[in-house]
Design a protein that fits this description.
It is built from three helices and five strands, in the order H-E-E-H-H-E-E-E. By secondary structure, it is α+β, with helices and mostly antiparallel strands.
């Protein structure tokens, strides 16, 4: 059992700063790139009467402010997978 566990984690790095296992970002494509995030933002619905570079609606109609990424609050947002990565979801714009 431990041999197979070490085989699974042999290419994995433990990042003590973030306290989680992470693999090479380019290799597993788990994290959306800046370019993918920009495309996701540009595909979202614009809010009429607001600056489209700053304000958009999320898929369920909540207003979002572009500057508030990765925070906790009513206008904040994150870029995440619609179909979770752990369930086989790909890191592509269509799944953002």
């Amino acid at each position: 059992m431990w041999d197979s566990l070490s085989d699974l984690t042999s290419n994995t790095i433990f990042d003590k700063d973030v306290r989680k296992f992470s693999e090479d970002e380019h290799k597993n494509a788990r994290i959306f790139t800046r370019a993918q995030k920009d495309v996701c933002w540009n595909m979202s619905t614009k809010i009429q009467g607001r600056d489209p570079a700053r304000w958009r609606y999320d898929p369920v109609g909540n207003p979002l402010l572009h500057a508030l990424r990765g925070c906790h609050g009513a206008l904040c947002h994150e870029y995440d997978h619609i179909v979770p990565f752990s369930k086989g979801g790909k890191t592509v714009v269509e799944n953002c």
